[in-house]
Design brief:
- It is a single chain.
- With 64 residues, the chain is an alpha+beta fold.
- The chain contains 2 helices and 4 strands.
- The longest helix has 13 residues.
- The chain is globular.
- It starts with 8 loop residues before the first strand and ends with a helix.
- 8% of the residues are buried.
């Protein structure tokens, strides 16, 4: 089991009123997941997505 902590990243577009999320892509290699949380609350629950699911989500957003 790894003890690596998430390194949270917030998009530069998140200064538009705070309706954004943070992601921690540094855990893909060690855990195979991309955690996501509410950017307004550091103590918010994390949702873990597989790398494939997160990639599909990003591609879907780009297609809009």
């Amino acid at each position: 089991m790894t003890t690596e902590s998430p390194r949270w990243f917030r998009s530069s577009y998140s200064e538009n009123g705070g309706q954004c999320v943070e992601v921690a892509t540094n855990l893909v290699a060690s855990r195979g997941v991309v955690p996501i949380r509410d950017s307004k609350r550091d103590d918010s629950p994390e949702l873990d997505f597989t790398a494939a699911a997160f990639s599909a989500f990003v591609e879907g957003v780009k297609a809009v």
